[in-house]
């Protein structure tokens, strides 16, 4: 699978039109239904390659787009979500500088 190709498990005759927000691989138990003793085996079945990580991020992005941005009557929620995400990101990258400006009491 190269950059820009369909996933290897995608079959247009079976799945219909391609949806970038859908995982076309073999279905597994959802994380919410995994028992504590099975977490190690469940994590061992995950594909941990860079391509798999990029695919997961891409699917999450497209799911977010389909839910909040693409509907005909989309509200203001995606703008607030991006604002809060960017504020959190910039706070985290500047935390080392900001922690020196705390107000300490010396008594």
Describe the fold and architecture:
GO terms for molecular function: proton-transporting ATP synthase activity, rotational mechanism. It is a single chain. The chain has helices spanning 12-15, 39-44, 50-69, 77-93, 95-98. It has 107 residues and is an all-alpha fold. The mean pLDDT is 89. It is extended. The protein has one domain (12-101). The N and C termini lie far apart (64 Å). The chain contains five helices and no strands.
- The average pLDDT value, as a whole number, equals 89
Poorly predicted parts: none
In total, the number of domains comes to 1
- Estimated structural class: mainly alpha
Percent strand: under 5%
Shape: extended
Relative helix content: 40-55%
- Separate helix tally: 5
Give the beta-strand count: 0
Largest sheet properties: none
